[in-house]
Amino acid sequence: MKVVVAEPYLLPHRDLMVELGPPDAVFSWHDSFTEGPVGADLADADAYVGSVLTRSMATGARRLRFVQVPGAGTNGIDFGALPADAVCANTYHHGPSIGEYVVSALILLNRRIPEQDRALRSVTG
Question: Are residues 53 and 109 in the same domain?
C-alpha cells in the first residue's frame, strides 16, 4: 500500500505515522504542496493525506481509494474527480479545543495576564 502525504505540518509526526500505519504501507512524503510532483506521486498511490486534491491530481490517481484531509474542511477536494469507490474523510476533533482556547484567551486578555507576566519578569529578572 502506498500512502502519499502532502501536509508539511505533519512532517514532525512522520515516525509516529509510519509506526502506527498499516504494516505494509510505504509512505511518500512531500515537504510542501506542489500540484505537479504530488499529482505524479499519486499515480500509483492507494491513499492520500492532504488538504488539496485537484481534478488533474485525481484523474491520474487510478488506484486511489482513500483521501484523509487532516483538517475540518474538504473544500480543497474535487469530489467529482475521485474514483467512484474512493472514500474521503476529515477530522472534526478540534471543535471543543478551539472553544476552550477562545474562552481561555478571553480570560487571559481580560485579566491582563501577559502584561502582569512581563511586569513580574522585569522585577525578578
Answer: no
Same domain, 39 and 17: yes
Question: Cell 477562545 maps to which residue?
Answer: 102
> What is the H or E stretch that residue 113 is in?
helix 113-124
**pLDDT tens digits, residue range 5-63?**
998 888 999 999 999 988 899 999 998 888 999 999 999 999 999 999 999 999 889 89
Cα–Cα distance, 85 to 63 (Å, whole number): 10
Residue 93 contacts residue 99 (beta carbons within 8 Å): no
Domain assignment of residue 12, given as a range: 2-92
115, 57: one domain: no
pTM of the predicted model as reported, rounded to 2 decimal places: 0.73
d(CA 23, CA 59): 27
